[in-house]
Amino acid sequence: MPVGADNLERLEEEARREIAAAESLQALTEVRARYLGKKGSVAGVLRSIGDLAGEERARVGQLANATKQRIEEAVGERRGALERSDRDRALDAERIDTTLPGAEEPPAGHLHPVTRVFRDMVEFFTSMGFSIEEGPEVETEYHCFEALNIPEVHPARDEQDTFYVEGGNVLRTHTSNVQIRAMTGRTPPFRFIAPGRVYRHDLSPRHYPMFHQIEGFLVDEDVSFGDLKGVLYAFGRHLMAREIELRFRANHFPFTEPSAEMDYACLLCDRQGCGVCSNSGWIEWGGCGMIHPQVLENCGIDSDRYQGFAFGMGVDRTALLRYGIPNIRLLFEGDLRVLGQV
Amino acid sequence: MRVSLRWLAEFIDLPTEAELVERLTLAGFEDVEISSTGPDLSEIRVGLVRECGRHPNADRLSVCRVDIGGGELIEVVCGAPNVAAGQKIAFAEVGTVLPDGTKLKRAKIRGVVSTGMICSDRELQLGDDHDGIRVLDPEAPVGAPLPEVVSIGERELEIGITPNRGDATSLIGLAREVRALFDGELRVPETEPPETGAPASDAIRIEIDAPDDCHRYVARIVRGVRVGASPDWLVAKLAASGIRSINNVVDVTNLVLLEFGQPLHAFDLAKLSGDVIKVRRATAGEKIITLDGETRELCTEDLVISDSESAIALAGVMGGANSEVGDATTDILIESAHFHPSRVRVAAKRYGLKTEASYRFERGVDRLGIGRAADRAARLIAELAGGEVAAGSATAEGAAPSFTEEIRFPTDRSNKLLGTALSKPEMAALLERVGVRCTDAEGEDLLCAIPSHRTDLHRHQDLSEEVARIHGYDRIPVTEPIGVLRGVERPRLWRVAESARDALVAAGLTECQTLPFLNAEWLEALQLAADDPRCRTLRLVNPIREEEPLLRTTLLPSILRIVQQNRSRQLGRIEIFELGRLFRTDGAPSQWGGDLPRESLSLVAALAERDEKGLWEAPNSPPLFFKLKGIAKKLLNQLGYVAWFPSASLPPHLHPGAAAALEVEGVVIGSVGELHPDVATAFGLDLGCAVMELDLEALQALPQREVQFREVSRQPSVRRDLAVVVDIDQPAGEVLEAIRKTGGKDLISVELFDRYAGKGIAEGRTSLAFRLVFQRFDRTLKDEEVTKSTDRIVKMLAHRFKGELR
Known about the structure:
The complex is a heterodimer.
Chain A: H1 5-21, H2 25-36, H3 41-48, H4 54-93, H5 113-127, E1 131-132, E2 138-139, H6 141-144, E3 170-171, H7 177-183, E4 190-199, E5 210-220, H8 225-240, E6 246-250, E7 256-265, E8 282-291, H9 293-298, E9 307-314, H10 316-323, H11 329-332, H12 336-339
Parallel strand pairs in A: 1-4
Antiparallel strand pairs in A: 2-3, 4-5, 5-9, 6-7, 7-8, 8-9
Helix pairs in contact in A: 1-2, 1-4, 2-4, 5-10
Chain B: E1 2-4, H1 5-11, H2 17-26, E2 30-36, E3 45-55, E4 58-67, E5 73-78, E6 88-92, E7 107-109, E8 112-114, E9 117-118, H3 121-124, E10 155-160, H4 171-182, E11 195-197, H5 200-203, E12 205-208, E13 214-223, H6 232-240, H7 248-260, E14 264-268, E15 276-281, E16 287-289, E17 295-297, E18 303-306, E19 311-314, E20 318-319, E21 332-339, H8 341-350, H9 356-363, H10 370-385, E22 388-390, E23 394-397, E24 406-410, H11 411-418, H12 424-433, E25 437-440, E26 445-449, H13 460-471, H14 492-506, E27 510-511, E28 517-518, H15 520-525, E29 550-551, H16 556-568, E30 573-584, E31 598-609, H17 624-638, E32 643-644, E33 654-664, E34 667-675, H18 677-682, E35 688-695, H19 696-701, E36 718-727, H20 732-742, E37 747-756, E38 765-774, H21 783-801, E39 804-805
Parallel strand pairs in B: 11-22, 12-15, 27-30
Antiparallel strand pairs in B: 1-10, 2-10, 3-4, 3-6, 4-5, 6-9, 7-8, 13-21, 13-22, 13-23, 14-21, 15-18, 16-17, 18-19, 19-20, 24-26, 25-26, 28-29, 30-31, 31-35, 32-33, 33-34, 34-35, 36-38, 36-39, 37-38
Helix pairs in contact in B: 1-4, 6-7, 7-10, 8-9, 11-13, 12-13, 14-17, 20-21
């Protein structure tokens, strides 16, 4: 039988069919051997063309080689497809339940909310060049009150709800004692913050006997209440992470003159009034003012030459508002179901 | 302070309530609020009577259908003769709580169901009228709460006054403040009394024996008064300020106190013995029965008013019962005085008597207002109780009080302090508003005359506050401070503490903070020896809980209590820590000097666990002790230290067989261990618990270190595992250390990876498996070199630890 183009076409057609039908790499290898192996069909064709005339032999030889190459390509494609599906099967077999919880090893620990807020505050003030100062929690009445213009015989003392320690000292009622300790013996200019723990003899739904304050003060020759406002606005923006509105209300602190209390516009209701701000639109933030000249003098600083500002605010309330914790007690009762959330 | 707004309006025209509250708040008054007295009628609504017909079974009753804006008409039975269709009325729905406290129910009245009530004045407690219902303004919106359309009770101003503003604790004081903020004309009441009697100074003589305590004493006399009930207007004014009516004479003294802020006292002249009023110190042990009926034993620090025989009042605080004005009183002596603030304050505190009088004296009264207040009282008493006012008054002067009459006010400095750019005239205008009279002085200065009622203004900074207050703090421009740039200092203790927190949180622990108060029993529960320095505690005079009066000298009780509390919340795994100051009086000097306690920052961590493994937890996690030891090691490593865990000097709260001290650079700075079972029991713990204590103060005192880099080798390493059987009580740490030393410098690491006793190992013996890694920097190690080293180790183990290779 003369070997011709028709034969080769048929051969290729059959090969393609078988290649497509090969369901495994093994079967495919067998198909390939049948057609392209040394004893395969295409080799047979090539062997048989020796009988043909020169021109015809060349033509058929070319055709046969082209057919061989196309079959080889078809085998290659099929092999690729089979390998991919083998891999897919293997991957499928390795499928895991990704809805199982992520392992926390070790389980996540938590900083106390007050620590977190303190860090945030300290980060801001140190970036503004305020150094950290600390002072005693058991304090003399002099440093806690008298040096701050709060004499024993003054009604302002009644506002303090002081814990007294046997022997005559007190638990500090504010971090302002650090003003006295840090300023005494130093020459301005200087700027300090005093983060710390303070105590008031008050256990009621909204108060806890222990809470935290951050005090800041800056003394220089030319520093004004306007500068104080500037620092507090910048601080507020940092702390609340957005534009804020502050309100300064005149008030009385014996250790500042002029004195003010500051409120920030409630972030939850934008001054419309809500439960968090007791419908006032404002949230009390702390006290501030220009350091009283007598306080500077008590620390040996020339009050004619120097003036300065001071401010103090509660830390706990910020923590409560930031994390949506409803009651200050929850911060200090050590309930891991609470502390483990923040 | 609380005052009736209508009364305040007698002294000055008021702005709107909202403006008043806003400006007073910004000007330094606290918690300013305006509210209504009278019944709470917020649930009562405006209703429209759509239909009104006869009750089918009762002539005098009507059946009405009322619209309260809810869509449906409500049918009620009404007994009022004046009810008619088309009226706007006050309607109470079923369920409303009426002012008398009853809750309105559905009722069947003569066969007709009545679902609510049309209210009369009496039912609303707005008056006594019960003859008919209250008919409202025809314009009142249907459905609105009644308080929006009917004025109920008095409008009252509640206002918090800071301790420096004694001058504002009166109607006139508040009116002055309103004038400063809004302008207006102050209307001061007439004070001139009609004098008809003989001169007061003929009847009584004043002697001030304690001139420093009493600056001025004025006595007016009114004879022939008829003591009786006060008129309604007077009772109402006092009631608005929370003062109970006593009788017309006493009420007048209280009224004048509210008007002028000057406390007064009325004595029954007939009850005084002798013709002298003395202002003197009490004698030791002297007794007085005060008007509240209490007998008080006085001391020489107390200032009293006395007649020729005995004390008749505790000056500035409370009168005596022996001279009380009663129904039978006809002649009275009115006292108006200026007592020293601290003298009054000390007495008021000592006897726990905070009165309207002491409150004002403590804050300082107007030194020039003494006579005026006495005049006003005499005038009103004559008006209300009759009687003849004696001519003039008996007076005496003590030492002049300290006050500031004039302040030189440098307006340029004030601008510099405030950050404002107000001109001299602008500053003067602002100060004039608060009654400070300004005259021009040289340069930028003003000479400021301080009104006598402003006892709080002494320095130019005080005037700057007045300027800021009236000008408005909000109008001070926001600026930024300009100054020298300096490096920020952060105390080392602060940094050490922060680093410790981070290490513990990274290890999975949660930070707690607790009150630093201790119960003495908790210290006992820790099994501390009697001479343990932690038993030397400071005690609070006024603890918040009686049973917790001590300041803590250890953080252990609070952390153990928190473990216990969380356990009772059914948590199975508790990993916590706390940083806090200890208050030590064990002889360590205070870092703050003086007689203060040493405050040492300390750290305590606790791991407690019940054997309830979670999904992803390793089935064989190490015992708590080792977990905590590992955490301690890592914490100290991060600070650049190597931790040692010697088993000497263990604290008594730890299990003696499962604890170690914590040593760094030769200094013991803490401990780590399983809790002693007795301590665990004492704190109610039913689960395994390990605790670590770390003295952060001692730690920060050590030389500062950093973790140091060690060269890494490019040469291959050789690993050998070695299992050796030793006596079971042989500390593995010693074996490990001996291997390290014997291995030579090519042995770069030794790790204990297994410890086993049991099947296959002789009784009383245990197998320790070590992983040894050998490596050189200069070349690859030869196998025989490693073998030589391990042989040496094996020999050493056999020799020193009776160790046999397994």
